[in-house]
Amino acid sequence: MATAAATSSMAATAVFMPPRLPYATSRLARCSNLPYLPPRVSTTSIKQVSESRRLSLVPIRATSSEESSTSIDTEEIFTDLKGKWDAIENKSTVILYGGGAIVAVWLSSIVVSAINSVPLLPKIMELVGLGYTGWFVYRYLLFKSSRKELATDIEVLKKKIAGTE
Q1: pLDDT tens digits for 81-130?
Q2: How does it sit in the membrane (predicted)?
Q3: How far is CA 15 from the centre of its chain?
Q4: Please, which residues have CB within 8 angstroms of residue 146's CB and are 6 or more apart in sequence?
């Protein structure tokens, strides 16, 4: 039964598809007045060959991980993080603050997308941000004395965060 269905579908396709002419016949039966042009030679293959030759001329030097000064020692990082985690007395508070920070970022993302869906509000928020940026530049970055004041404020804030003050 499967062969009968396949034969009937092939017969149906043969009815709907036009007959194909052999390649030589279709080539002679062209209805164009333009002369036959040979296929173009691709310049990308020439570029690839020249680039591969150029790359083979570049000397390559293998270095070990001990020689490079920019390598990252993952073992040292993990031991440092483990030491800091072990030094924390109240681990539940740190986990609670971390979870709260993740929830706060998620909620702020929802609020921003809700504000963005209101038609006129995003443009107003852009104007508010642009105005605040202009005020900040005028207040803290334009003059030398205000830049020094900003630097001292940042240092005080760093000391408060680090707990050295």
Answers
A1: 899 888 888 889 999 999 999 999 999 999 989 888 888 888 898 999 99
A2: Multi-pass membrane protein
A3: 51
A4: 139, 140
